[in-house]
Amino acid sequence: MKRATTTVAAAPLAAIRSPQVHVESVGIGPPLVLLHGFALHGGLFAPIVPLLARHMRVHVVDLPGHGWSDMLRPYDLDTIVDAIDAAVAWTDASETAPPGGAASMADVPLHRPPLVVLGWSFGGQVAMHWAATRPARIAKLVLVATTPSFVVRDDWPWAMSSDTLARFGDELAVAWRLTLQRFLTLQVQGSDEGRRTLAQLRTRLFERGDPAPAALAATLDLLARTDLRGELPAIAAPATLIAGTRDTLVPVGAMRALANALRQATLHEIAGAAHAPFLSHRDAFFEALDGVVVPSGAAAAGGGADG
């Protein structure tokens, strides 16, 4: 199985110092991009990558300001999507170029093949904005435990209050390590596999170094400002939505409303799962991907995903 790890420039190399986006690539097949959630990194997807990579060329991204990727300015969805799009395109061009690879972004073709993008939580918001603003680039979406708005707004009750999010930001500023540990506990709260899933999250939380406080603050500010409901009608790509029935961060009602607002959406509700169903309920998670991301029957033929 072919694996490549690259940290690539998200802007022309002629810049004094271009922000870098870390991408790990493995597998052979159509391109699939994995986008993680707030304060984490692409390493969280490690348990599901091997099965996906049997059928897809999987690009695991550290979102800007997370893991081994640099922070971006300004920190908004347009800048983040541009950086990831360029990084994935550069990676693909390097792998198909003659020996020596792509020397710069100038070597990347202007026409970029469509991608399947799987976004979890905050990564799902990035994926939705990518699909809404660059529809030719996105073939399919897989939206896992995500929402157009993490904050309560008019006609959007399935979210936290702005005061709750602001208080979380204050706690991060005072004791970010303890606050993130509590945040992980919230992600598995109510799950019937909560203890095992929490152990996986805690093991990987800091394996790519401590998160930058400025990046955490900027991401929380972006989450507070983001309301993608107005962009949803522009998303033409078919979307597979995967929700946990016990998710307290993104209630299942939010995923149902999101499915109703999209042009082409199929919603899978995983009973007993909380915010990270790809870790807690991998068999059910892959069943939702069957015939969408992996060939029909491939997940079952893989011998079970929970090992």
Describe the structure.
It is built from 11 helices and 8 strands. It is of the alpha/beta class. The chain has an 8-stranded mixed beta sheet, sandwiched between helices.
Cα-to-Cα separation, first versus last residue? 20 Å
The fraction of residues in strands falls at: 15-25%
Count of extended strands: 8
Radius of gyration: 18 Å
Q: How do the SSEs run, as a string of H and E?
A: EEEHEHEHEHHHHEHEHHH
Strand order of the largest sheet: 1-2-4-3-5-6-7-8
Q: Which term fits the overall shape?
A: globular
Estimate percent helicity. 25-40%
The number of helical runs is 11
Q: What is the CATH topology descriptor?
A: Rossmann fold
Sheet of most strands? 8 strands, mixed
CATH architecture: 3-Layer(aba) Sandwich
Key phrases:
alpha/beta; Rossmann fold; single chain; globular; 11 helices; 307 residues; disordered C terminus; 8-stranded mixed beta sheet
